[in-house]
Task: structure prediction
Amino acid sequence: MSHDNEQSIISVRDLTVSSAAGELVHGISFDVPRRGSLGIVGESGSGKSLTCRSILGILPAGVGVAGGSILFEGTDVTTLSYRDWQPIRGTRIAAVFQDPGSYLNPSIPVGKQLVEVLRVKSGLGRGLARARAIELFVSMGLRHPELVFRQYPHELSGGMLQRVLIAIALAEDPEVLIADEATTALDVTVQAEVLDVLADLQAARELTLILVSHDLAVVSQVCDRIIVLKDGEIVESGETARVLRDPQHDYTRLLVENHEKYGIEKYLAPGLIDA
Result:
């Protein structure tokens, strides 16, 4: 692997996020390797979503970056204006969130919504955009993509909606995809299928993937590195297999113990956990 592959595409340094009520994220630092997959895990309120929204420049009203830097390809995105963000957000860094239904127009077929994104962003004509949309739906593992193309959001299951959202997020061929609790609302079987799609896409497209979840089993299925957040601080980080096999922090240990009964071992290479 060349050195270029190992460089970080995103470097977070001493990131502090605050609101009027006080600090919410306390000076955290981490790197996201180019073409790598990083899992950010922690319970609700740990600061994981605020960290991702800082990377995307979409913090909620009244919340802001109070210190530190977030370098994307060497540019500190915390300093960017709305206009400066336009060629980056959705184009080079894309995201999918927990409730796909709320990001789709209920009165327009999902295929048409994807076509619209392709036409606006890539300047494709209608015919080419439609062909590309079908191609994207196929790559998401959607069966009967031609039928899905014509369906409205309310006609699709949660897992299908999330795949449509991922297709829309990847329409611009971004370098980074952030999936923030993207599988939380799905049942376990569908969740595993969507995670498989993300893993396949990451490999096929050489994507950098940041997967945010409160569920250690979810990030361990897809990510080669993990950071564990608690109360706005990183309590542990490292290679997934090492963190699962030998957690150093009490909180991580608790997460691992809680999930052992769900078969977390199958995500590790044989022999890493003693029989």
Notes: Residues 1-5, 269-275 have pLDDT under 50 and may be disordered.
